[in-house]
Amino acid sequence: MDSLSGIMERYIGTFFFPRIQIIDIIEILLIAFFVYQFMLWIRNTRAYSLLKGILIIFVFVLIAFILKMNTILWLVTNIGGYAITAILVIFQPELRKALEELGHKKVVSSLIPFDSGKKETEGRYSDRTINEIVRACFEMGAVKTGALIVIEKETILTEYIRTGINLDSIISSQLLINIFEHNTPLHDGAVIMRGDRIVAATCYLPLSDNMELSKNLGTRHRAAVGISEVSDSLTIVVSEETGRVSVAGGGKLRVGVDKEELRKILEEEQNKKVIEKTKKKLWRGLVKNEKKSDQ
C-alpha cells in the first residue's frame, strides 16, 4: 500500500493544478462576454466575410505547417509583421464603429456624467411637437411622399448637420410636408431636429451595411439604420413606395408602425419621467422648507 501511494503521489505530483480564485472566475466570465459580444457584432457587418477569409488563410498555413511546406512558411513568417498592419487598415471602419457603439452605452454615460449640469424643463421636445410629427408622417404616408426625420438625443449630430442647409425653424406638420414635397429644393436628404426645432434639412446620413436588412428596403431605410448605428438618435422614415411609416433606433428598424405606436415611441423618447421625478424632489424640498419656516 505504501508503495502504491508513493507511485500515485509521484505521478499526480507531475501535474500542476493552479489555484482558482474568485477574481479568476470573474476574469473568465468577462472575457467570454466580450468575445460573445464581438462575435455577435461582427456577424452583421462586412467584417464577417473578411474574418472568414482570414480563417481560410490560417487553415491553409496550418496545412502548410503539417506538410512542412518550407517555402510557404518562410513567406508567411516574413509577411506576418505587415499582415497585422493590413488587418488594422482593412477593419478600420468596423473598429471605429465598435468603439462608437461602446461610447454610446448607457453604462458609460452613467459612470461619466458629462451632462450632469444640463437643465431640462420640458423633456427633449414638447407634446405639440409629437402631435405635429405624427400628423406630418401619416399625411405624407397617405400620398406616398418619402421622408426622413432624425431626432437628436444625447449624441450631437453636428457633423451631419453641416452636410445640409441650416433652417432653425419651429417644427410644424405643414413645414415638414412642404420640405419633403416632390420637386422642392429641400426634399432630398434628411431633416435633423433638436428639441422643438428643425436644425437642418437635406442632410446626408451614413448608410448601414447590416446584412440582415431586407433587400426590399431602399436608401432612406438604410440611412435611418446607419445614423442609429453611429449615434443614439431616433429616426422616422416614410416610404415613398408603400407609404409605410418606420422607426429606426439602436441599429434596429421597426417597419410599419401605426399612429398610436409612433406616438408611444415618441413619448418614451421624450424623457418626461426623469423630469417628473425631478419635480417631485423639488416639491418635497419646498414642503420641507415650508415646515421648517413654520417651526
Tag the structure with descriptive keywords.
seven-stranded mixed beta sheet; 12% strand; 7 strands; YojJ-like (1; 56% helix; elongated; single chain; 295 residues; alpha+beta; disordered C terminus; 12 helices
Structural topology:
Layout: H1 2-12, H2 22-43, H3 47-66, H4 70-90, H5 92-103, H6 106-111, H7 127-142, E1 147-151, H8 158-161, E2 165-170, H9 173-179, E3 190-194, E4 197-203, H10 219-230, E5 234-238, E6 245-249, E7 252-254, H11 259-269, H12 272-294
Parallel strand pairs: 1-3
Antiparallel strand pairs: 1-5, 2-4, 3-4, 5-6, 6-7
Helix pairs in contact: 7-9, 7-11
How would you describe what is shown here?
The structure is a single chain. The protein is of the alpha+beta class and 295 residues long. The chain folds into two domains: 2-103, no CATH class; 127-270, DNA integrity scanning protein, DisA, N-terminal domain (YojJ-like (1). 56% of the residues lie in helices and 12% in strands. The N and C termini lie far apart (88 Å).
